Amino acid sequence: MAAESHNWILMATARTPTNIAVIKYWGKRDENLILPINDSISITLDPDHLSATTTVAVSPSFEKDRMWLNGKEIPLSGGRYQNCLRELRSRAGDFEDEKRGIQIKKEGWNKLHFHIASYNNFPTAAGLASSAAGFACLVFSLAKLMNVKEELGQLSAIARQGSGSACRSLYGGFVKWTMGNEMSGRDSKAVQLANETHWEDLIIIVAVVSSRQKETSSTSGMRESVETSSLIQHRAKVVVPSRILQMEEAIRNRNFSSFARLTCADSNQFHAVCLDTSPPIFYMNDTSHRIINLVERWNRHEETLQVAYTFDAGPNAVLIAPNRKVASSLLQRLLFYFPPGPDYELNSYVLGDKTILQEAGIESLNHIEALKPPPEAKDKVPSQRFAGDVSYFICTRSGKGPEILMEEEHALISSQTGLPK
Ligand code: DP6
């Protein structure tokens, strides 16, 4: 029946992780296609702690494309979304569900509109690469819905056109984004260096740093760097190519001290490029600098690298420890210097894998209160503590890539109304 055939709603839901770069992407050679000036390498974070879930729905009854992020409708006018959609449409396949009387021909996708609902399991405003997980998830779920038969690598090249760093979220474990050299951007895509089981001992602690300041977006920040920084050219042409090789080797051999040295150096150089931009861009704040000092002092005291740090386009610190033992010593130090502000609860101050907290022997706020300064603290100067300067910590690890969630209960859109549940 003709009337009935307009009532169907087809949906797909996926969950996609965030990633943190250990060799940074900063600077484009093509703004529209989002082609970078250097390769980059990232670790995919455990989706149980940091991921986006997206449901995409299509129906002949939808009048326009609409999107809801964490329950709030947001405009979909952006060129980046349109670019991803155009790429997917050109690769869409036929779809048929005889039982429900649904048939969509390849060309038919051009006339249909989408409803998209996305949800981050971590605070969006925290500046934790939410656009990376978001665009990766959008592309992954739409590819499923539209029956796009492409390898993950090609999907990553589509996600790249949503947000550069998104291409690295198509794989779990350790991922390289090869800059490529084709004009079309086809070869500017992600490749997996090792999966999430390769280096399972690594523990990652994210310190979400309190900040009142609105930061320069990565997109405009890197544009200004490319236009005004002379350091960025040297970085892209000389420094990064050799670091990429060394980082690949460090990951392959699970060589933590090499991995940590490169990670810290690359984060610091990225922020140096930001300072070398005119006008200079400051992403890190006093709390970020204190965290760097804490790690550097500890590393020097132990005479081997205990922990690596890295910072993206914001003040949050991502700290990487070689194993649980070191991670719990790190957490003790972090909680000593950055105890929660008044009215916090321990349960909402340390999120994610809470077993690290137990291993650090911290079961209550009183335990944090009673922490002693670490041995490397200068003994003559009384250690200052900075309550409230960190909003919360997330303990996590390297995790798997995107997955399709089949069960109806995971869908964020109602199959009856086509609107967010
Ligand atoms: C500092 O991927 O957010 O996090 O491609 O313009 O969307 P656009 O930028 P985006 O930049 C990320 C920059 C970074 C480093 C990194 O993730 O490699």
What descriptive keywords fit this protein?
6-stranded mixed sheet; 421 residues; alpha+beta; 5-stranded mixed sheet; Alpha-Beta Plaits; Ribosomal Protein S5, domain 2; binds ligand DP6; single chain; 2 domains
Describe this structure in words.
With 421 residues, the protein is an alpha+beta fold. The protein folds into two domains: 4-196 and 406-410, Ribosomal Protein S5, domain 2; 203-396, GHMP kinase, C-terminal domain (Alpha-Beta Plaits, 2-Layer Sandwich). It contains eleven helices and 19 strands. The protein has helices at 79-91, 130-145, 152-159, 218-228, 231-252, 256-275, 286-302, 324-337, 346-349, 355-359, 365-369, and strands spanning 10-17, 19-23, 28-30, 35-36, 40-44, 51-59, 66-69, 72-74, 95-97, 102-104, 113-120, 174-178, 189-194, 203-209, 308-310, 317-321, 350-352, 390-396, 403-404. The strands form five sheets. It has a six-stranded mixed beta sheet with strand order 8-7-11-6-1-19, with helices on one face. Strands 15-16-14-18-17 form a five-stranded mixed beta sheet. Helix 1 (79-91) runs parallel beside helix 2, helix 2 packs across helix 3 and helix 5 runs antiparallel to helix 6. The longest helix is centred in the middle third of the chain and has 22 residues, at 231-252. It is globular and about 80 Å long. The two termini are 28 Å apart. Bound molecules: ligand DP6. Ligand DP6 binds next to helix 4.
Oligomer: single chain
Let me know the average pLDDT: 94
Sheet having the most strands:
6 strands, mixed
**Largest sheet: spatial strand order:** 8-7-11-6-1-19
Total domain count: 2
Our measurement of the CA-to-CA distance between the termini, rounded to an integer number of angstroms, reads: 28 Å
Annotated CATH architecture of the largest domain: 2-Layer Sandwich
Write down the secondary-structure element order: EEEEEEEEHEEEHHEEEHHHHEEHHEHHEE
List how many beta strands DSSP finds.
19
Radius of gyration: 23 Å
Percentage of residues in DSSP E strands: 15-25%
Low-confidence stretches: none
